[in-house]
Amino acid sequence: MKRALKIILLALAGVGFAIAQGAGRQEKAAERTAGQVYKNIQVFNDLPASQLPTVMNFMAGSLGVKCSHCHSGPFERDDKPAKQAARRMIRMVFDLNRGSFGGASAVTCYTCHRGRPTPVSVPAVGANPWQGAAATDAKPAATLPSVAQVFDRYVEALGGRAAILGQTTRVMKGSRVGADGVLVPEEVYQKAPNKSVVLTRYPEFVLRRGFDGKTGWGMDAGGPALLSPQDVAELERDADFYKEADLGRLYAEARVTGEEKIGGRRAYVVGAKARDGSSERLYFDAETGLLVRRDREVKIALGLFPTETDYEDYREVGGVKIPFALRWSMPGRSWGRRIAEVKYNEPVEDTIFTAAAATKG
């Protein structure tokens, strides 16, 4: 039951988790498999345990269902026909990709389900390719700025490089907005150059995610959380106190790929390759220069798993603009954070960023 509870808590937090580790810079022990960590695993036995919650979210989002569609408590029970069907379908997907696509994740749950529990097998009516497309008054796109111009304008829009580098700590208090809309108190502590911790205070326990300058870690109701390498990379990125002053150093490559509308407003799109190998798209408001959305994709057992972050309600605090509302979205789930108070250059003890401090309550 404790393991099942962990899966639920981790899903609510919005990321899949594995045993805390150091973002690839430290020597890592072999991670335990899903079959070793969880009960009654029949298809994903050899999958790294850290990927299992993310894979579950991928399937739930592909079918547009909740965990209860296949699972009942405890999670290892096999009393629902949908769970047996899911195992057959997963094996089918693996067989198709191995037999017809050279092992690439060309076919996924979403290929057929498209957000519905039952796959759609009948083509839609109404489209008529025999008629040409209607003429439009589309105008040639304006010349796009360079990626350096977009990044430089972003720094200027935030308040300037000097203002950003003039801060050494940041303490934010507010609420986590759960996938169910329930608000839970949340605190974020950050310290230059690369320490951060988030404390989400549920009634029964405190969910903690941190980066102590070298290692990413997590604590939940059951003890140490499971963090995947991608999760640790995100913790390290979030802990980078001055990343906004020089976004370019976060990416192995980046270029402006075009324009799109975000919330009805024009935004320049920067396609980027992160240093951990994941693909990203960054959307900067064409008028204000501010970052309004970040999309990233990471590879998991069933294909590419997308996560979207929206940055809203920018306000100036201490000469620097920061978003007071954040929203994270992934297949089948969306949650957020509302910030009520921000303080800069407050004394923050280093111990708060360590996993050892979290174990002491």
TL;DR of this structure?
The protein has about 350 residues and is α+β, with helices and mostly antiparallel strands.
Written description of the protein model:
The structure is a single chain. By secondary structure, this protein is an alpha+beta fold. It is built from nine helices and 13 strands. Strands 6-5-4-3-2-1-13-12-11-10-9-8-7 form a 13-stranded antiparallel sheet. β2 and β3 form a beta hairpin. It is globular and about 55 Å long. Mean pLDDT is 86; it is low at 1-27.
The N- to C-terminal Cα distance equals 23 Å
Mean pLDDT: 86
Shape: globular
Largest sheet: 13 strands, antiparallel
- Structural class, please? alpha+beta
Low-pLDDT runs of 5+ residues are: 1-27
Task: Please compute the radius of gyration using only Cα atoms.
Answer: 22 Å
**Number of distinct beta strands:** 13
Strand content is 25-35%
Query: Strand-and-helix sequence, N→C?
Result: HHHHHHHEEEEEEHEEEEEEEH
Provide the spatial order of strands within the biggest beta sheet.
Answer: 6-5-4-3-2-1-13-12-11-10-9-8-7
Approximate helicity band: 10-25%
What's the tally of helices?
Answer: 9
